[in-house]
Design goal:
Structural class: alpha+beta
Order of helices and strands: EEEHEEEEHEHE
CATH topology of one domain: Aldehyde Oxidoreductase, domain 3
Shape: elongated
CATH class of one domain: Alpha Beta
Radius of gyration: 28 Å
Number of strands: 9
CATH architecture of one domain: Alpha-Beta Complex
Strand order of the largest sheet: 8-2-7-4-1-9
Distance between the termini: 73 Å
Length: 232
């Protein structure tokens, strides 16, 4: 079955299902939870800036990790293209909650086989986060001259998420935590998904060549050549 729509999970209700243990996984209340899809939480250069632009939730809502990852990529791509090395973006929430889904047949004629059951408990299928009204989701620090493009980047991120969000701007030139940071800053490189590379080991010893000219498997013996008789 494919990915269910966001309306199945965005309503803020029910008890959180989050209890997991990394030290003793077999004693976890929630077992077999998938890893979050948010690849990176800190992006850009963490140094001393002038303003902080924040994406704030205007209502309580639940967001899946794939939606937050889509918002992160949209905002970070816009900022990285326009202001490389002159911003710092941070995801401020972590998807602790585990999504449960009851397996049901989704093929043609499945209604004749099984209709499922009402309020089935289900099995772990994904991760999501809860955010209350007024809480921060994404924060971007930069210089004052970049405020328009940063607001545009967070607006693009908000369009990837369910619910309504607002953008707030704060002056941090005299903030104590901001003044503690160095002028050069710490660079956070973009994490990329490693693609598997097929490595073919060419062995020089014990390899033979077939009659078509293609190399045979290592250790294989060549087929005997056919004898041709001369006609008298």
């Amino acid at each position: 079955m494919g990915l269910r729509p966001a309306k199945c999970y965005r309503k803020y209700q029910g008890q959180p299902w989050t209890r997991m243990s990394r030290k003793k996984p077999r004693k976890s209340f929630v077992k077999g939870a998938p890893n979050p899809k948010i690849r990176q939480y800190n992006m850009g250069v963490d140094k001393r800036y002038e303003i902080e632009v924040v994406l704030v939730a205007a209502e309580p809502i639940q967001l899946r990790d794939n939606a937050v990852e889509a918002a992160r990529q949209a905002a970070n791509k816009h900022l990285e293209k326009n202001y490389p090395g002159n911003y710092f973006m941070q995801i401020l929430k972590y998807p602790h909650m585990v999504i449960r889904e009851a397996n049901a047949l989704g093929v043609a004629g499945a209604d004749r086989i099984s209709k499922g059951m009402k309020l089935a408990f289900g099995k772990p299928k994904g991760r999501m986060l809860r955010i209350k009204e007024g809480e921060k989701l994404i924060a971007v620090r930069t210089i004052a001259a970049n405020i328009s493009q940063v607001r545009h980047a967070l607006d693009k991120a908000g369009r990837k998420l369910s619910g309504s969000f607002k953008i707030t701007v704060r002056d941090i030139t005299k903030d104590s935590q901001n003044l503690k940071r160095s002028i050069e800053g710490i660079v956070f490189k973009t994490k990329e998904i490693e693609k598997p590379v097929a490595v073919v080991a060419a062995t020089t010893t014990g390899s033979t060549t077939t009659t078509e000219g293609t190399p045979a498997a290592p250790g294989a013996t060549a087929a005997p050549a056919e004898k041709t008789e001369k006609k008298k």
